[in-house]
Amino acid sequence: MSEFDFGLDRLVIGLFTGLTYGMLAVGLVLVYRSSRFVNFAHGAVGVFGASMLALFVADWGAPYWVAFVVAVIVAALLSGLIEVVVVRRLEGRPSLVGMIATLGLSQLILVSALLINTDGVSGFTFPKPTHLPTFQVQSLPIGTPYVAMLVLAPVVLAGLGWFLKHHRMGMAIRAAADDPDTARLEGIPARWMATLSWAIAGGIAAFSAILVTPTTTGAGMDGLGPDLLLKGLAGAVIARMSSIPIAIAASLGIGVIEQLLLSNPDTRDLVTVVIALIIVVALLRQPQLGRSGQDKGRWRRVVLPPLPASYRTVRSIVWLPRLCVAVGIMVAVGLAYVVSNDTASVLTLVSGYTLVGLSVGLLTGVSGQLSLGQFAYAGIAAAASVHVAASTHNFLFGVLCGVITAALASAIVGIPAMRLKGLALAVSTLAFALATSSWLLRQELFLGDGLSPAKPTWWNYPLEYAVDYYLFALVVLCLGVWIANNLRHGGFGRMVQALRDNEHAARAFTVPNRLRMLQLYAVSGALAGLGGIVIGHGQSQLTVNSFPADASIEVVAVTVVGGLTVTLGPLLGALIIVGLPALVGMGMVGQAVLAVAWLLVVIFLPDGLGGVLVRGRDELYDWLARRHGIDPLRERHGVFDVSGQASSPLHEKPRLEGLVPRVGASARSAGPILTVDSVSRRFGGVVAVDHVGFQVAPGEILGVIGPNGAGKTTCFEIVAGFTAPDRGRIVFDGIDVTGATPEERAREGLVRSFQDAALFPTLTVHETLMIAQERAEPTRLWASALGVRTAERTKTEAADEVLERMRLTRFARHSVGELSTGTRRVVEIACLLSLQPRVLLLDEPSAGIAQSESDALGDLLLGIRDELGTTMVVIEHDLPLLSRLSDRMLAMNLGRVIAAGTPDEVRNDPAVVTSYLGADQAAIHRSGLRLATGADDPDPDPLVTRIQSVPSR
Ligand SMILES: Nc1ncnc2c1ncn2[C@@H]1O[C@H](COP(=O)(O)OP(=O)(O)OP(=O)(O)O)[C@@H](O)[C@H]1O
């Protein structure tokens, strides 16, 4: 091992670069705090500022420092403009859309910067700061850019720190970033504060780019790509995307570590790997980052609901898609016989990008996770396939090994990534992509200095020529599209979509989230791997340059422009973004047009160009259906009375008998079916649940009451397995389930509902019922991938029956998100019953529903107990309803059980009444509690005194 050659000169460079990364990190933190996503255009805005400076100084002859100030202001204005024109339009959409938009912006701004400064922003010719001293540290000449950075950056950062802490405007920025709604109430224009944050970030980006560019050797623009962004991100994530001083300190450390690694020939290549590791470790320590729940309810449907059954009676509707597929394949095959080898190579590349895009479509489109590292798996698969094919002389075996390697790599990266969602996943996959292209693929085990890939053979005819090889690519593409389409439209896609919409509800319906996500990473890795194999074997010499980290970002563009929600979207996107420029030879203007198209699609066409085509197709189907006397509106949407009341399924008597096997008799032990044994749970200083214990007998309904914050929901969370208790045990039907996951408990029959009954807003009612059938008939990944629909048919029949019995058939095709709360409750109960529960934990089932519905709900729950023998524990604020339902009642306050007994005993218990004293008097009156304590109470309960001393809410 060689020595580290780290002296004062390296330290100075380390601090210089560290400051640059720090400036980047500060900009990223500022934007994240106000918009909650990573601005991937941050570096590009800096480059734009730098190119403006070059224009002012080199072309127009302006004095350096005047140009410096103006260029920084221009970049700030540009960044502020982005906030106003782009970011604001994305309000209410998932934060991932913001990140994708800034990826597009980044391309657009970089191209514009190059157009402004046609020579490129090259390090050699870039203007340097004037009027500053230069000196030498050891052998290193410290030029004016270094001096300017080392002197000015601390001044700028200190000024920014002071501004944010002490200036009225800075304080307003922080207030608006922390809680925009409250800030608005206090008269702070939160939106404009976000604009100001973006503007400051833009100015800072330009400041650093202007001073860094002259220190880079050769083309500065390349050095300012994702690699630099990653280094800025490292500091920002260590600072938890919030603290500016920590971001700076961490970035200085990263700058020095980088120089340390560079000072030793053995560790020189490891810089990106080490930074990637730093990022992943920092992210794993804060898994909640980017998981603020802000995206809840912001997702769109992944696929359109299946066509109404009546449409299938129209022959043209059945045959049209088949005809289109047949013609499409014929045209694609025919191209092989008419195009040149060059064009065939481009079409092969398009196929490869499409395959990688299919993996992005699954990951990002269906599960809502943004991965910026899909091309890394493509590279890994290509390398494995080429090696195995060469050593075994079996091409197909090579392909198989390549696909498996990519699937494994993706699943292995997925294990830590499972804790990292949203922003954290995007950042860590970007780090992985860069580490793969800069180090992993360069290893001899992978691509080393380059490989000569074998070509497939067709009945002893090697597909050497590009036109022949293109046919191989086409076969793989068709296979990939078929599998991706099956996955999206089958049980697997539905489950992943459910996990995206509402992970807790999916787990309560027995969907094992970790296993499913791991499977998702594996199949998306395999699809990306297929793409890599197609690209890899098509090259005469395969090097790391075939799989650059930027391609991972480009393929996101391909998928977004084509349509994240449409299976064939990536094909459309790849033809436009990869194929068109290569075939037509578009210059920079063409690239700018494409980048603008990217942005416009993200902003105005959430389903991409593919979405437009799908909508057109559906209009055509509707037209064809109408010609056959079918009413599309009625068939697609059913009869839907939005007034709610009349159409509430709660007002119709369900047919419960025989819906599920009577469960009361199936108890394993004769004792209580559920025992909660002295469980406690503390959150920081709050004791949410304090030694709570109770038992429930089979077939019993136990009511739980208590004021807000009493600990009822936390207690349910513990019983259902969503929150681990600090102490105590949960025994279900004689078995200790304290360590079991929520899905395991639900599978055993311990099933919970949620207070908001949100379910899965983008799924239809029918699909939601299908998710609930997962317990009886779990979806198999292979069956979903191969389009085997046996289990799907069984589940469909079961779901249809439950819907009919619960009087929900007319809502079957409606999205859950558009239902009234009352109807959603019935859908939720229908799902819970499909899980064949033995104990139902119902959390405020009457919340948000009308009084008349509430009475009907009581009948329904009693019916379920009487007909099916289901045991229930019900949290409820509606005391008359709960008293009617409950055999026994339990009252909680301040995390403890304060009374237990018959409903009458508990309602009249003085401790219970006083526990509600902090609550609204009208609420007490409504609840039916009698105020049995007060001034005339001769013997006040000590508990009363304690509660009365607690400030009222
Ligand atoms: N994840 C958490 N982190 C921190 N504190 C929590 C968490 N969950 C609950 N708490 C706190 O624990 C206490 C009990 O909350 P819990 O939601 O269980 O009460 P509750 O009786 O269900 O109230 P409500 O009727 O309003 O639903 C509250 O003070 C709450 O703020």
From TrEMBL:
Cell compartment(s), UniProt: Cell membrane
Region named Disordered: 931-953
Highest taxon of source: Bacteria
MF annotations from Gene Ontology: ATP binding
Matching InterPro entries: AAA+_ATPase (IPR003593), ABC_AA/LPS_Transport (IPR051120), ABC_transp_permease (IPR001851), ABC_transporter-like_ATP-bd (IPR003439), BCA_ABC_TP_C (IPR032823), LivM-like (IPR043428), P-loop_NTPase (IPR027417)
TM stretches of this protein: 12-32, 39-58, 64-84, 96-116, 146-164, 192-213, 233-257, 269-286, 317-339, 346-366, 395-415, 422-441, 469-487, 517-535, 555-580, 592-614
Domain ABC transporter: 674-919
Topology in membrane: Multi-pass membrane protein
Keyword Transmembrane on entry: yes
Principal place of residence: membrane
A Pfam match: BCA_ABC_TP_C
Protein keywords: ATP-binding, Cell membrane, Membrane, Nucleotide-binding, Transmembrane, Transmembrane helix, Transport
Name listed for the protein in its UniProt record: ATP-binding cassette domain-containing protein
Species this chain originates from: Nocardioides hankookensis
